[in-house]
Amino acid sequence: MKDLLLYNIPPSLCSQKVRLALVEKGVAFKNRWVDIGPTAENYQPWYVKLNPKCVVPTLVDGDTVITDSFVIMRYVAEHFEGPALIPTDPAERDRMEHWYALAESLDFRLFTFASVNKRMTGFGLKMKVKKLRAYAKKYPQLRTEYEAKIQDMTGLKAQSHDPAVAQKQRADLEREFDALNELLAQQPFIAGATYSLADVIWTVSLTRLSFLKQDALIEARPHLLAYYQRMQARPSYEAATLYPRFMIGPMLPLFARVLGPRLLVATGMIVGLFYVWKMVLS
To answer: Could you give the domains of the chain?
Structure first.
């Protein structure tokens, strides 16, 4: 069997979810880094044909193309041999489904954009919309996809700059973290006695908060903190290249491919792009 091909980028929230699910399941896969920064490969026609929403990740399994990290993680859990990521016990499965869906319903992308410099996010989103409009004009056969993405980016900009939205986002997180803290006082994993997809998605969600320097939300809840530390200690955490902080190492192959022979004279550019990568989309 050929390895799966995963189109993704190291710091992306949703890319991390899928990589962690694959590693925990013990499934071999190959990464194909997609530059969603300067060259915006995710907006190029070849990629939009794979993923009409213009986002990462995308999983290719032979002739099967799966998009949306929520769907991909379940596909990985259900289609490959390895440790079970979906509990067989009905009560544990119901608990897993509840927390799995809940994590997906919380807009961590919006929380990310609302947590970083608004001037930088505003500029970055403006450039993305400009590039999308150019692509929509150049490739009319994909105009519907590009216009949908323009609408998405425009809405994200408006919401991420709205204090009321940011306040609600934080309140939602606080409420769910309180419930998780109580749950994890009674059991080692979110579903119960065994590791599941709920742990995959929440481990990455907690990691994103660390990335945004919002660790206080975790540290204020001792059982949640202890759980997060246990998840970080699992071999899969490092193997899946999770991002509790910005790390240049995993990005070097992508920088080399994007910058090519100009890499040696582009050090200053890379340092400047540091802030762009911190705004990576899911």
So the answer is: 4-277 (1.20.1050.130)
**Cα–Cα dist 186/77, whole Å:** 25
Stretch 112-120: mean pLDDT: 66
Cβ-based neighbours of 9, under 8 Å, separated by 6 or more: 15, 33, 34, 35, 36, 56, 254, 280
* Angle in degrees, 0-180, between the axes of helices 197-211 and 108-115, rounded to the nearest 10: 10
Residue (of 83, 58, 62) closest to 72 by Cα position? 58
Indicate the pTM of the whole model. 0.90
Token couple for 279: 């705004």
Phi then psi for 49, rounded to 5 degrees? -65, -30
pLDDT digits (tens, 9 = 90+) for 179-228: 999 999 999 999 999 999 999 999 999 999 999 999 999 999 999 999 99
The rounded percent of the chain whose pLDDT value lies above 90 is 69
41/54 Cα distance (integer angstroms): 9
Q: What is the mean pLDDT of residues 164-185?
A: 92
Strands 29-33 and 4-8, by their bridges, are parallel
